Each structure stands twice: as C-alpha cells, then as structure tokens.
Amino acid sequence: MQVRVWDGFIRGFHWLLLATFLGLWFTGGKIEHIDRHEQLGLFMLALLLTRIIWGFVGSESARFQHFLAGPKAIVEYLKAPREFQRFTHNPLGAWSVVALLTVLLAQVGTGLFTDDAIFYRGPLAHLASSDTLRLLTVYHKQIINFIWVLVILHVVAIVVYRLLGKNLVPAMIHGNQAGEGNQRPPVIRHGGWGYLLLAVNCIWIFYFLG
Amino acid sequence: MIRSVKVLVSLGALLITPSLQAEPFENAAEAVEYRQNAFSMIRANFGVLAGMARNEIPFNADEAKTRAQAVYHLSYIPWQGFVGMGENAYEGTEALPGIWQNKADFNNKAEALRSAAKELVEATESGSMNTIRPKFMAVARSCQQCHEQYRD
Ligand code: HEM
Q: Which superfamily, per CATH, for A2-209?
C-alpha cells in the first residue's frame, strides 16, 4: 500500500530550496551578481517563512508539533531505527530540519542587514547602526559555513539511509511511501494552499524589501 | 651625566624632527581617521554612479562624469594614511596587518583601482550607461579585491 507522506508543497519547497540555495551560493560574494543575490535571498526568505507557517497549518506530516520529539524519543529511535514507522521525519531528522531552517533563516536575516562598504546595503540596512551592520555582515559571511556543514550532513544522512536499505528520496519526489505496519496515514492538505501562501509572502516581501 | 643625556636627547630630537615633519599625522589615530574619511568620500561619490548603474536613480551623463572624476582623483588620497603604524593594533581600524607585510601587493591593488577609475572616467565621456556599466563594475571589483585581503 502506498501512503501519501509529503504533500505537493513540501516537495516543491524542497527542490526550490535546493535550487535557490545553489543560486545564492553561486552569486554570493561576487559583486557583479549582488542584485541577483538579493532577489534570490528574498525568495529564500519567502520560502522559509512559508515553510514555517506550513509547519503549523499544513499537512500533519509537515507540522513541527507532529514530528518534533524529545531526547527520549531520539534515544529510542537510535536503539531501534527500523521500528520507526511514522509517516514523517524521524526524531533525529526532525531536528536536522529545524537546524537547517534556522541557519538558513539566520543567513537571510543577516543578509537584510549587510553593508559591503562598496555600493551595496541590504534592504533593511537603514534600520541599523554602522557597527551593527559590520557585525551582521561578518556573521553573514560566517553562517554559510554552518549551512554547508548541515547540508553535507543532510546529504550524507540520505546516502547512509540508502546504504542501510531505506531510500528516502523518491518520497520527496512523488510524495508516496510504502505503508508498512498499521500506522495511520497523515492528514494531507492540498499543496496548492502552500503555493498560495508562498505567492502572498513573495508579494509582500518583494514589495517592501525588493 | 645629566647634561650629556640632555645633549644626546636634543641631538636625537634634531635627527628625528625632520622625518616627523614629513609625516602629516601626529599619531596613529589621525592616520586612521584620515584614510577612513578618504574611503567614505570615495564611497559617497561611487554610490551615485552605483545608483545610476543599478537603475535606482535616473541616469544623468554630466553627473556620472563628475562622480567618476571624483572617484578617480580620490583614488590617490587614502594611501598616505597607511603609515608605518599598522603593527600597533589600534582600536577603530579595520586595516589588516597584511598591508604592512605585503606593501608591494597592497600598492598594486591601489594602482589597480586608479587605472580602473581612469577607464571609468573615459567611459563616462561616451554618455552611455551601457558603456559605463562594465567599467563601473570593474572599479567595484577592484575595491572588493583589496577589501577581501586587507580589510577586516
Ligand atoms: C542533492 C541534494 C539533496 C537531497 C537528495 C535531499 C533529500 C532530502 C530528503 C529525501 C528529505 C526528506 C527527509 C526525510 O524523509 O525525513 C529532505 C528534507 C529536507 N531537506 Fe533535503 N536534500 C538535498 C539538499 C538539500 C539542501 C541543499 C537543503 C537546504 C539548503 C535541504 C533542506 C532540506 C530540508 C529543510 C528538509 C525538510 C523538508 C521539510 O520537512 O520541509 N536539502 N531532503
């Protein structure tokens, strides 16, 4: 039996996130691409905000409350990973999702307050003192290292699961996962609502910050 | 004994004074302020060109030319502020000690800015943003290449 585990928005979000991240990486630090970098960064902000909202109002499998688990659950999961049968992130992966979203948000957030001392200032730079701008610009250049660590861990984890016989990638593409055991399938919300929310977020973000 | 020390001190002062007078700054703080102010002026003028190149303010050929000339002339100014006081870690500077360790390379990067700025001035003669824009970016890159290495 196939169970729908990731709704259309989560899947689209994930691959848009990957593409946007690569675009940001490529344009970052190259002064001739700064305008493109800013646009991609604003889109990234829209993606992240929408994902966070979706984590409260979206499909059950996408809700933080549904997949975040305490240390006890993580220990239990590590003891018997194969017994984990829920249709969402496992207790360890759940925290990696939160960590990734957090560092990405910190990266975009500091990006809004950058000053390159040449000709560019981030869209919210006028709100901060020049000392603050200097500090946040330095952070913006450093946080990317944390992001790479987490992204590499993320991809390595996916590969390790694969080697251990569990392929997580197809579900992130077509949304379905083989349903084993007698776990109840998650309540799935139509991904279209997620995209609508994304469009609304894009509009106000680009209007006020673009 | 005391007298001979006095004589030595005044002799020393005589020897030192002319070289001190060649330095326009009383102390490191003044030199830092001087060069930072020079860079601020460069940025302010370059910023107007940036606004035009990035379509944030309307293009005005005369204004672009004036600003490019200002950047070019100012690109001779900051370097006198990098006097031999870099090793004393001084509060308020973002200049890295590498400047004083690789003075030749630092000077090359300053020269790269000057020649890029000269080409920018020439491009503004054309009165066309499409000619100016690549030269504008070349100047920006020369700023960035120096900052990456020598500005904290
Ligand atoms: C080739 C590269 C990548 C592959 C194959 C991949 C694959 C996956 C898979 C299979 C999942 C679901 C994990 C699960 O079942 O619990 C996932 C989730 C996730 N990935 Fe990736 N990923 C890649 C790159 C990235 C990058 C570059 C980022 C961040 C910049 C990222 C961020 C995330 C996030 C935030 C989630 C959680 C999704 C959600 O619940 O909204 N991924 N990824």
A: Transmembrane di-heme cytochromes, Chain C (1.20.950.20)
